[in-house]
Amino acid sequence: MASDGNESPIRLAAETWESLFRAQVAVMRRLQAGPAFRKVAINEYDVLFTLSRCPSGWLRLNELNDHVLLSQSSLSRLVERLEKRGLVVRMAAPDDGRGVLLKLTEEGSALQKEIGREHVRDISSLVGPALTAAEQRELQRLTEKLRHSVGARPAKELPGKYLAGK
Amino acid sequence: MASDGNESPIRLAAETWESLFRAQVAVMRRLQAGPAFRKVAINEYDVLFTLSRCPSGWLRLNELNDHVLLSQSSLSRLVERLEKRGLVVRMAAPDDGRGVLLKLTEEGSALQKEIGREHVRDISSLVGPALTAAEQRELQRLTEKLRHSVGARPAKELPGKYLAGK
DNA sequence: CGTCGATACATGCAAACGCATGAAAATCGG
DNA sequence: CCGATTTTCATGCGTTTGCATGTATCGACG
């Protein structure tokens, strides 16, 4: 009820985002309600997951911040809590005295794997029946393209002028 | 870097969601940083927007709750704040003594339109260059399909068994 | 080498959030 | 018609979040 085929590009982009956003909300609602997120909040799991995907095992706090939808200070405290729970360990960055490196502990890794398995099952039971394999691949392609175009780095500061003039 | 073409359907679904989620995070980051959300938080705007799209003008609080990624209590207080700021008005539902109806005030409607315009510009400057019109329409189609399959209603209670067995 | 701005992370504090619960109205079952 | 259950929204309370700021290090430049 909106893709007439010939509408303004601006409207089209807005409706595309609206649709993507609503779909994300709908899926996220179900996932959050699931049993997988009793032990860790979704943001916390996101951190554990990102760490688990990191090849070297160690990840800088600021890099982590690019992946997660959290302010720097909130991430700092979230990590603090994860450390207090024994799920991650902090370490001063060897090459940068300001930096902090993070790594999953054995326990953190185990918990991530455990929740990850549940999480993946939940997801596939939501996404699997909704779209064909080809559609899923296409959706993946399009969202990846969008994400890479938007870029991970939000250009930190520049309040109000990072958008092409006018 | 992951769509080999022949991977397990479970993995495919998980990666599709992962990709969708990351794209949403990346776009949302940029939008939140933009100048459009100085006056109202993103969740607050979402409420104003949803109300503006409501044909009758009036919307029940619980229906609103389906669209927004917030707990019932948080929405209740968010609306309370919006009312205190004169952006919406509450009214007891005529046919249901428990219910509360919401409507934008003149001021709320004006603010929604103002921010909406900015918001739409921001979005189109992010999404527009990223995907062709055809790709945007396809992305819209796929996300709508996903959303409708997932369904708006999370089936409130049933902790742990709303997922088809196994 | 000393100064100055930028970057990385931590922290004080007020605002916002979710969970558990409460009150009031609706609905269901005898 | 009445009591039990459910639904809808509000509220107390502890936790989490973001903004502003503080502290320390890095990098550039004279």
TrEMBL record, chains A, B:
A UniProt-annotated Pfam family: MarR_2
Segments forming domain HTH marR-type: 13-148
Transmembrane parts of this sequence: none
InterPro entries listed in its UniProt record: HTH_MarR-typ, MarR/SlyA-like, Tscrpt_reg_MarR-type_CS, WH-like_DNA-bd_sf, WH_DNA-bd_sf
This protein's record includes keyword Protease: no
Stored SMART domains: HTH_MARR
Record's keyword terms, sorted: DNA-binding, Transcription, Transcription regulation
PROSITE patterns per UniProt: HTH_MARR_1, HTH_MARR_2
SUPFAM superfamilies: Winged helix' DNA-binding domain (SSF46785)
Domain of life: Bacteria
Keyword Transcription regulation: yes
Protein name per the record: MarR family winged helix-turn-helix transcriptional regulator
